[in-house]
# Entry
Amino acid sequence: MLFLVGMGLEEGDMSLKGLKAVSDSKEVYIEDYTSFPYRPGFDARRLSREEVESDFLIKRAKLGKVTLLVPGDPLFATTHISLVAECRKEGVPVEVIHAPSVINAISRTGLSPYKFGRTVTLSGPVESDRERIESNVAAGLHTLCLLDPKIDAARGLDVLRGMGFSGRMVVCERIGTRDERISYGEVPDLQAQGFGAPPHCIILPAELHFFEEEFLQQFSIKA
# Structure
């Protein structure tokens, strides 16, 4: 059996179901190559991306109960969806135990989750990313920009500005955690204030409902 257990956005977010899966498992592994280093508080062997994408976990799960710990929600990454599909193809029982992720935590900004378009992962000035954001803008939809682990919010804002996007944006630092910070303002003002430790994400708001605008004002910054 394979358990895919979400660890949430910070230590302490894992559910009781997730903790029980860990205690019931013969082997416990963790991957954090797409997110921040996560210390679960118990023994877990770290796996590389190549190991997660191979048949390693399926082979181990055929021999006993195995848990893979994943930051955020376990099915946010397509790698893990593929792993579930392969388990079912191989006849290996699999249970997914969900947890908080950036996708539901962004509602803390006051922006309606129903008004978000396609999510973009920024790593640099990529033409396809620009086209996806423009498509969201044209449809009146907010855009959540996740950041490649190699870049922070300052670099992410530079990338967006280099692709021709301007106006007021929302920067979320460590959203959903005890020390989160949400900032709303023009790009130069956001960059002037500086940013703390990752993870960071950036939201390009579309046209705001009056309630969204009113809620965002509490995070507003000025030069």
